[in-house]
Amino acid sequence: xxxxxxxxxxxxxxxxxxxxxxxxxxxxxxxxxxxxxxxxxxxxxxxxxxxxxxxxxxxxxxxxxxxxxxxxxxxxxxxxxxxxxxxxxxxxxxxxxxxxxxxxxxxxxxxxxxxxxxxxxxxxxxxxxxxxxxxx
Amino acid sequence: xxxxxxxxxxxxxxxxxxxxxxxxxxxxxxxxxxxxxxxxxxxxxxxxxxxxxxxxxxxxxxxxxxxxxxxxxxxxxxxxxxxxxxxxxxxxxxxxxxxxxxxxxxxxxxxxxxxxxxxxxxxxxxxxxxxxxxxxxxxxxxxxxxxxxxxxxxxxxxxxxxxxxxxxxxxxxxxxxxxxxxxxxxxxxxxxxxxxxxxxxxxxxxxxxxxxxxxxxxxxxxxxxxxxxxxxxxxxxxxxxxxxxxxxxxxxxxxxxxxxxxxxxxxxxxxxxxxxxxxxxxxxxxxxxxxxxxxxxxxxxxxxxxxxxxxxxxxxxxxxxxxxxxxxxxxxxxxxxxxxxxxxxxxxxxxxxxxxxxxxxxxxxxxxxxxxxxxxxxxxxxxxxxxxxxxxxxxxxxxxxxxxxxxxxxxxxxxxxxxxxxxxxxxxxxxxxxxxx
Lengths: 136, 437
Ligand SMILES: [Zn+2]
Fold this sequence. Notes:
The complex is a heterodimer of chains A (136) and B (437).
Chain A: E1 5-6, H1 13-20, E2 25-29, E3 34-36, E4 52-56, E5 60-69, E6 83-90, E7 93-100, E8 115-124, E9 127-134
Antiparallel strand pairs in A: 2-3, 2-4, 5-6, 5-8, 6-7, 8-9
Chain B: E1 24-31, H1 47-62, E2 71-74, H2 111-118, H3 133-145, E3 151-158, E4 175-176, H4 192-207, H5 215-226, H6 232-235, H7 243-247, E5 251-254, E6 256-257, E7 267-275, H8 276-279, E8 287-296, H9 306-324, E9 333-335, H10 344-350, H11 361-366, H12 382-386, H13 392-402, E10 416-422, E11 426-433
Parallel strand pairs in B: 2-3, 9-10
Antiparallel strand pairs in B: 1-7, 1-8, 3-7, 5-6, 8-11, 10-11
The structure holds zinc ion.
Zinc ion (ZN) is lined by residues 29, 31-32, 43, 45-46, 48, 51 of chain A.
């Protein structure tokens, strides 16, 4: 069963546009030198809206921890159960994290601490999402 | 000119001692029966009927008559709520005779509906947009202190109907908008189970231990629940949960098990809150409000981590202690939220209750936390032991301070109590006292 399809809004459109071009681009506050994801109207740290810009990141991260969804509430994902849901920290700023189902990693066999690289997965017509793959 | 919204929350750092400390009191409480679901036929068991019953019991408990009530604070949201999916609404099925000729009274209850049904002639204060029980007792305390009313019913209805809880609605859609676009594609519906399970895993890694180390806590919650006559577990004939039951129970979000989650129920509870002066002339010994505090912290990224959860709970504890003018050694009864078992350790450690510091909870759980023992943690049995009423923490605190908790009555001193329905990120805490200062 395919994953749930994100519905971009004014704030998130630049992010999803980048993902559809297979780029991971997050907000960067030039005043604080901090990355920010998910996007917000203002910088989480200093509150500035003007100092926020979009910045492509390398897309390297590490697996912090994970759970296995065995009885979730989202209809579209139920046929996938059990499936991994890992927490990925971004190497360029470890205060930024992402979710991943770690495609290719069997449920319960998640290598916690392993390095991962961003990949892009089609979830609907013309819509990709960012996913993460263990680096061998 | 638009009127300013009433600023009643104590939700910033450094507010000092609450200026109305000890000047407001809880004088009564009432609980409806707790059913797993409304059976859709018994009109005396609707959410509305149960809310009216809870109000009557609370007034009786306090020895107050309907004409004395001048405030009604009722949480507007049905617990299964607008995000609860199709199973949480009665419509589009045919309605019943009045007062059940709409969703009101069936899946929704509010102050206006209750004032009308209970025929309360003198209510001058029944605010709308009332928050959940996590904040509403704080709202009541501040409202009374500020003179908006003097004798107030505070009602928290928790509905549940046939169908799997929170299935359907937005959870059944193919697209995810708003905040959901950052969680739903990967299977996270955005609830407190997800929010807290990752930090809990990080907790086990950082401090040592495994998920099953919460078993003694969950089992003790069930034990306390069986000592609570009005609760779901005791009133529906459940037997004591064993360690074997727990470790063999199925996973929901592995390692989170089904017994780590509270059971949705159909029930209502009411509290009678008034001025300390009036409470002293009522039927029960007053339980004074020593402080109320709230918090609403913003997560910095997709998922709060352990550091963030510890920072938030530390700040909430500091606010509460500061406002009450008390410290960890002063708190006798401690009833934190347990709707997912994995949250409670964060609160226990933040408040340093019985000297428990970061990383100490699993050893504390393995010690004697029974109500008759030296560390009667969560003497209410919470939501794991009583069903998802979200009120057991408050009611037990009141009963312990009155000395009327029956088989749950602690053997240690019971003069102050901390109670909450709160997650690490948002909600509030209440500090109660047997004495006004
Ligand atoms: Zn900034």
